[in-house]
Amino acid sequence: MRTRRLFPILMAVLLVGGFVTACGGDDDDGGTTGTVAVTEPAGTAVPETGDGGGGGGGGGEVDCPAALDAAGTVNLTYQLMIQLYDDGQYASMTSPDSPVDLDPEAFLAAVSTLRVLESVTPAEGDLFGPISDSLDTAQQAGEMLQQNVAVGTPFADGGGQELLDLANDTFVDVNANISYYLEAAGC
Questions:
Q1: pTM recorded for the entire structure
Q2: Which of 35, 49, 104, 149 is packed most tightly, with the most Cβ within 10 A?
Q3: What's the pLDDT tens digit per position in 92-117?
Q4: Phi then psi dihedrals of residue 97, to 5 deg
Q5: Cα separation of 58 and 186, whole Å?
Q6: CA 86, CA 14: separation in Å to the nearest integer?
């Protein structure tokens, strides 16, 4: 049973490490958040909005700092969801003294922010399926989380296990697809 809980956590750590590294988690800009400091080989700065040009086929402009921030919120909240394996975990993560911020509303707002990726068409096609499917799944998880937090003891009625199963089954796919579409958007 312990291995079943450790595997998703290990995967989360590996995915977050890769996500942070791929998205420029080691800033040289003095810690300023929301900036993109990428340059072209000729030294021309890349704008902070993607135009679908990162290997992608286009679509509307994407506010990269906002999209990257939203992706981080989705990733972190998914990591927390896969640790909600009993009512005690819900109580611990929702208490005012909790060191983590389990915020279903922020998660749902982040998913809504990422809907802009639906206008991006990756040049390589939908490697992980349409982004709309991944965002719909994340939306469903967020709504379930919102209901479970409101109930307080979601394992009593089965909602806790349902969310845990959904989060474990979709964590990697949803986050990989979001990263893929962010890259296609030029973020």
A1: 0.70
A2: 104
A3: 999 889 998 899 999 999 999 999 99
A4: -85, 0
A5: 9
A6: 24
Instruction: Name residue 132's amino acid.
Output: S
- Residue-level pLDDT at 42: 34
Q: Distance (Å, rounded) from C-alpha 55 to C-alpha 5?
A: 37
Nearest CA-CA partner of 76 in 17, 132, 150, 154: 17
Tokens of 136: 């719909």
CB-based burial of residue 113 (10 Å sphere; 0-12 exposed, 13-18 middle, 19+ buried)? middle
**38: Cβ contacts below 8 Å, ≥ 6 apart:** 24, 45, 46
> What distance lies between CA 70 and its chain's CA centroid?
7
Contact 86, 155 (CB under 8 A): yes
Spatial neighbors of 29 by CB under 8 A, at least 6 apart, are: 35, 37
Helix spans in the chain (H): 2-22, 64-81, 87-94, 104-114, 131-151, 159-184
Residue 89's pLDDT band, with cuts at 50, 70 and 90, is very high
User: Tokens for 59?
Assistant: 């679509």
pLDDT tier at 43 (50, 70, 90 boundaries)? very low
Q: Is 63 helix (H, G, I), strand (E, B) or coil?
A: strand
Tell me the C-alpha distance between 138 and 23, whole Å.
Answer: 20
Q: Are 131 and 178 in contact (CB under 8 A)?
A: yes
